[in-house]
Every structure is written in structure tokens, then in C-alpha cells.
Request: fold
Amino acid sequence: MMLKSVTASFAKVIHGLKVGHLTDHVIQRSKRMILDTLGVGLLGTNTEVFHKAHEYSKVYTSSVSSTVWGRPGFGLPPAYAAFVNGVAIHSMDFDDTWYPATHPSGPVLPVLMALSEALPPSPKCSGLDLLLAFNVGIEVQGRLMHFSKEANDIPKRFHPPSVVGTLGSAAAASKFLGLSVTECQEALAIAVSHAGAPMANAATQTKPLHIGNAARHGIEAVFLAMLGLQGNKQVLDMETGFGAFYANYSPKVLPDLDSHTWLLDQQDVAFKVFPAHLATHWVANAAASVRRHLVTDRALLPIDCIERIVLRIPDVQYVNRPFPDSEHEARHSFQYVACATLLDGAIAVPSFHKCQINRPQVRELLGKVELEHPRDNLPNFNTLYCEVSVVLKDGAIFTERCDTFYGHWRKPLSQKDLREKFRANASRVLSCHTVERLIELVENLEVVGDCSVLTALLKELSPPEVASKSI
Reply:
């Protein structure tokens, strides 16, 4: 008797899921993900890494083009538009985070936006079509991560969106373009050979390319599958296939469609209130609480009175950066986020400007930071905590602990605050009218008849004073 194929079961689910499978819960959660991802992507079009990716992409031209966000009038072939827009989404590490650990939306949304614009005008793809394909891309990522206990922890070897995100991108594009079961299976096989990026490039300008590449490679895998390119039809079943990324890979056949449940129904995502690695959000919360013991009203932090700053955090080496030199290092520094929060009371987009990182007060505080790694504080976004203790020279000690920060899936952002984050991000690129129209469209996406209206709005010219804003 032949065992069922895991890869075949994925292809059948990707091909077979219909709009009717979507639940109200999944629709609402995924619309929040889409709105947030659009906003951080638009904000990211002002970053240095986006400018470099945009310049690089100009070598690619095609009669079929999709919009590059923040660049009205400039289009690229869909795969490269998805690449550049994916880079924008992750350029500031401001995009959503799921559990097990990955950034789920960034590899998927730019793919669907690019394809919706590049497809022939008939038949039209509805907002529900986009929501279905988006959720298929999210679901595939989650299912793959549940095949490994290693995926539960903050990664050490490779960046998850460069792996599961590439297959999520391929799955979303396969659904959106209506591939056959066989083509879906081939697209997954091809995508596995495009997947992967080492963690050594975390905290550099190269890390945002991981999201851009996942988006681009997923589309390319689908286009190649549509041309009949073949891969290993058991690629998700094998340790030498997708299992090459995990030391303890244990794949399982997906349930039949009549008993399908969505992982997004069971596990919400985290939305960040400032642009930095998710683990630093616990630190910022605890540091802000400690600061209230040290500073009253608008007084300055008494730096000279501080003897030591102790951070009790999980052992995550790539977020351990005692003296960061760049914005990307600062976004991946427990130490910097703690010190900047103690000084300023909060972290925001400007907190990672070079001039903020190099302030003498910041450098002085960084020299007083010590890390401790309690044995019960595991590197896991679902269970980690942070304690911040400030020890004064007179012997006084002030300690605060954060178990769950605002924006975590256990303490989700309100819809009002999610909208405000989107407005703050998108209004740096688009007019206020366009921003409000995008909010309205995304929040009612399930009744939108033609989802290409979203990309049409992104092509609207912004007033000069908006377009000239810089972060």
C-alpha cells in the first residue's frame, strides 16, 4: 500500500480551497494584516535599502508591468515589482510576525498586488479572490512550520520568511492564477530550490532582500510550473527536500478539504508599534515602566546616578548588539532599545536615525548594560519575557517585567490603533484622501468587485509636500 504524499496533499488543498472555506474570523484577521503590510511597505519606500533595490530593478523591463509602491509611473514585470515591494515591507523590520516565528504577509501581499494589476482585465479578480489567495499563502507557511519543533523558537540558522515565505508566495500565486493540482505541486517543488537565507545577514541592509526574494521566487516558480517545468513531486515529504532546512523535520499529510481549518483562526499575528525585531518590544515595554520610577514629569533621565542596567532576556545572539553602529543593527539590539526607551520614554520611527543612535547619552548608557539569560526564559515569541533592572549608585534598584507587550497576539492592537499606524506610515507617501480610501477598501475587501482598484490607488500622484517627506 502506497503512503499518501504530503506534497500532493498540499497541492490539493491549494487548488481546492474556495471562498466558501473562509471564515469571518480569518477574513477580519487577514484584512488587518493586509492593511498593516501596505502601510509599512509604503513607509519603507523612503529607506536607503529600498532605493538601492529600486535602482537595481531598473534593468528589467517588460510589456507587462506592475506598480512599484511609492513610485507612480514606474512599473516592473510582476516578479520584480513583487521583489522591490517586498524589500520595502521588510526594510525597517516593521511588518507582522506570526508564531511559529516568521513574517507571513510580506512574501505574499506584494505577489498578489502585482499579479492583480498584470492580469488581463477579464475576468476580474474580486477582493474575496485576493483574500482567499492571501490566506492560502499564509496557511501554507504555517503548516510547514508546524512540521518542526525547531520552528517554534526564534531562529538561529536561517531566516524563516526566506524559506516558508517562498513557498507561501508560490502557493498564493498558484491559487490566484488558477493552477491545476499538478502545476501547484510542481510550483512547490521549484520554490523549494529557491528558498533559504542565512541569519548572518540579519541586522544588515541585505535582510530585507529575504522578503523580496521570497515574493519574487514564488512567482517565478509558478510561472515555470505553468510552462511545464518539473521538480520532485515528493519535495515536502523528504529530508533531502524541504526537510533540508530543519533538523527534526516531521511532515504530515494535510486534512481533506471537507475538514479544513485555518491556522489563522487559531493563532493571530503580532503587529509592531515601532520598527525593530519583535523581541525588543518586550524590552521597550519593561524599560518604559522602569523609567516612570526614575523620571517625573518632563525631567531628564538621571544618567549620572545610574550604576548598571540589567536586562533579563532570552539568549538570542543576533539581537545582542552592545554598541550598534547602523539603523539595522540598532533595530536588532536589546541594548539600544532599552537605553533609547529609558532616555526618551518610547521608541518610534525616528529612534533609529543615525543621529539618535550616536547620541553621547545613548553611548554612555550602553556602556552600563549587562545581559542575563534566566534558564526559564526561552527564545520563543509565545513564552519569552523581559525584566529590566536599573541599579542606582546609591544602591536603589528598580525592576519591571513585561510578559506581553501591546501588539502581541495575546494583546492585539485595536482597530483604531492599527488604522493610526497605517495613516502615519502611508501618509508619508500618499495623500490623506488616498490613505483614507485605502483604509475603506481594505476594511471592506470582501465586497470589492475588482481588487485592482487597490493598485490603482497606489499609482495616484501625491502632492509634492507628501512625496518629499523623508524618514
